[in-house]
Specification:
Layout (H helix, E strand, L loop, with lengths): L2 H8 L3 H9 L6 E2 L5 E2 L3 H14 L4 H7 L3 E2 L4 E2 L3 H38 L16
Antiparallel strand pairs: 1-2, 3-4
Amino acid sequence: MRIGELGRRTGVAAHQLRYYEAQGLLEPDRSANGYREYDDSAVVRVRQIRHLLGAGLSTEDIAYLLPCAVGEAPELLGCPELLAAMRSRMRRLDDQLAALARSRDALADYIDAAERTGRDSYPPFDGTERVPA
């Protein structure tokens, strides 16, 4: 099948399929006239890619994991390299979540402090820029 048919069968735009190819996630054959030709296994592969992207994995991570993927969901075989890559990604996500939680806490503290101070203590805003003396 050509790229348009693969896109229709998977719901993925042709430019995204070409990106997956550039990232080494898809490997189409080429016809005599240079058109990309995909076999039926490409449908499963694209669905695997979409599920893994939905799990927050990068295309680099996915390229590493795909050899261990079975089925559309996909089920990942527990090879040591795969587990190490997924644990590394989870640590990065945990770090990002912790940073977001710290930012949220700091913002909540600023909001609380501003609400306690009250509007009466602030100079009225007249639209002009205030320059420190």
